[in-house]
Specification:
Elements lengths: L1 H18 L20 E9 L2 E8 L5 E8 L3 E8 L10 E4 L6 E8 L4 E9 L5 E7 L3
Length: 138
């Protein structure tokens, strides 16, 4: 049973990384957020409309940074929850999305975090494009 749980956890992490993976950089082409490199835990280059992500495996000895960006008018409201540290959850925040160059917002969470997390992004319209990363630079 323990082996199945470990396998499921590894599969969940792999699927999450395939869908997403990490820090804000200038994005090439039309992506909202570019590839964060090996420090990225989550990378969602671009999504349209509302959505979110779930993952785990934060390293407690590394700083953690959230990066969200958006474009094409409107705004996104972001809610981020840490399963093991509800006292460190950032307050829900709103990112205004310009019509042209994406706006990028970075939220530092510091060190000492471990466990899972969930982000929910509520777009003001179905056409708003957004991207996100969760990064732990070494």
């Amino acid at each position: 049973m323990k082996k199945q749980a470990t396998t499921l956890a590894a599969l969940t992490a792999a699927v999450t990384l395939a869908l997403a993976a990490a820090p804000a950089q200038a994005a090439p082409g039309d992506e909202i957020i570019g590839y964060p490199g090996p420090d990225g835990l989550i990378w969602i280059a671009e999504k349209t409309g509302s959505g979110g992500f779930v993952s785990g495996g934060l390293a407690p000895d590394l700083d953690t940074f959230l990066n969200f960006g958006c474009a094409d008018g409107g705004s996104i409201e972001v809610t981020f929850r840490l399963s093991g540290h509800p006292d460190r959850d950032p307050a829900p925040f709103t990112v205004d999305c310009p019509d042209s160059t994406p706006t990028l917002v970075t939220v530092p969470l510091g060190t000492g975090l471990r466990g899972g997390y969930v982000a929910t992004v509520t777009a003001s319209s179905p056409s708003v494009r957004w991207g996100a990363t969760v990064v732990q630079p070494e």
